[in-house]
Amino acid sequence: TSSTRPQRLLRAVQRKATKGDPQSVISAIDYFCRNSEWAMNVGDEKGPILDSVVCEVSPATALELGTYCGYSSVRIARLLPVGTKLITLEFHPDYACIARQVIQHAGLEDKIFLVEGASGDLIPKMADMFGISTFDFVFLDHWKDRYLPDLKLLEECQLLRKGSVLLADNVICPGTPDYLEYVRNSPRYESRYFQSHLEYTKVEDGLEKSVFLG
Ligand SMILES: Cc1cc(-c2n[nH]c(CCNC(=O)c3cc(-c4ccc(F)cc4)cc(O)c3O)n2)ccn1
Ligand SMILES: [Mg+2]
C-alpha cells in the first residue's frame, strides 16, 4: 500500500535523527525536503529567523497555528525555557498523528500540547483549556485565508497583551494579502517584514513580525 509524504518524512526522521535530539530531527527533515521530497515546513532559511524571534521574545506561553509534521513545533519548543509550553493547533488528523511522532522523537512531548481541530473553533477555548490569559508569541502557519480572521479572533478573545509578538509565515507565497494590509496599516500593530524564500526553493517569501501595541 502506498505511503503519504508525511509518513515518508517521519520515516526519514526515525531512520536518521537521534532520539531526544531536536537539532538532529530538524536536520533530518531539511535533508529529506532538499534531497527527496519538498514539504511545507518553514525550513532551513526562514527557520533561523523564527528561532531569532523566539529567542528575543522568550515566551512563557506560545501558540502555533498549523502544526503540519511538527517541524516548526520542534524549532520553537527546543528554544523554550523549562516550565513554558507551546500549544499547537492542527486541523488534519493525519498530519497531527505524524507530528506527535516527530515531536516524540525529538523528546519534546512535555513542552508541546498538540490540539486537533480548526483554529476558528479552538481559539475561543484556549483560555479555559490551558488556564492561560494571554499569549506572548503566536506563529501563524495555517490556512492562509485564516490568518486575518484568527488574528481578529485572538483580539476579541483578549488573548493578546501589549507587546505580544505575532510571526506569520508565507506572507508572499502562497500569500496573505488581507492579513498584511491589516497589520501594516493598523495603529494597533508595529509590523516588520523579513525577506526570505519559500522553503527549499528560490521563490520569494518571507515572515511578517507584528507587535501588538494594546
Ligand atoms: C488549526 C488549523 C490548522 C490548519 C492547518 N494545519 N496545517 C495547515 C497547513 C497550512 N500551510 C500551508 O498551506 C502552506 C503551504 C505552502 C505552499 C504550498 C504549495 C505551494 F506551491 C507553495 C507553498 C507553504 C507553506 O509554508 C505553508 O505553511 N493548515 C488549518 C486550519 N486550522
Ligand atoms: Mg508555512
**Molecular shape:** globular
Ranges with pLDDT <50 over ≥5 residues? none
Calculate Rg over CA atoms. 16 Å
How much beta, percentage-wise?
15-25%
| Largest sheet, spatial ordering of strands | 3-2-1-4-5-7-6
**What is the end-to-end distance?**
52 Å
Summarize the main sheet: 7 strands, mixed
Q: Tally the helices.
A: 10
Summarize this structure briefly.
With 214 residues, the protein is an alpha/beta fold. It has helices at 5-16, 22-35, 43-57, 71-77, 93-106, 119-122, 126-130, 147-156, 171-175, 177-185, and strands at 61-65, 85-90, 112-116, 135-140, 160-168, 189-197, 204-212.
Description:
The chain is α/β, with parallel strands linked by helices and 214 residues long. It contains 10 helices and 7 strands. Strand 2 (85-90), helix 5 and strand 3 (112-116) form a beta-alpha-beta unit. The relative contact order is 0.15. The structure holds the ligand Cc1cc(-c2n[nH]c(CCNC(=O)c3cc(-c4ccc(F)cc4)cc(O)c3O)n2)ccn1 and magnesium ion. The site of the ligand Cc1cc(-c2n[nH]c(CCNC(=O)c3cc(-c4ccc(F)cc4)cc(O)c3O)n2)ccn1 has 21 residues, from strand 2 and helix 9. Magnesium ion (MG) binds at residues 40, 42, 141, 169-170.
Topology:
Blueprint: H1 5-16, H2 22-35, H3 43-57, E1 61-65, H4 71-77, E2 85-90, H5 93-106, E3 112-116, H6 119-122, H7 126-130, E4 135-140, H8 147-156, E5 160-168, H9 171-175, H10 177-185, E6 189-197, E7 204-212
Parallel strand pairs: 1-2, 1-4, 2-3, 4-5
Antiparallel strand pairs: 5-7, 6-7
Helix pairs in contact: 1-2, 1-5, 2-5, 3-4, 8-10
Bound molecules: ligand 76B and magnesium ion (MG).
The ligand Cc1cc(-c2n[nH]c(CCNC(=O)c3cc(-c4ccc(F)cc4)cc(O)c3O)n2)ccn1 binds at residues 40, 65-66, 68, 89-92, 95, 118-119, 141-143, 146, 169-170, 173-174, 198-199.
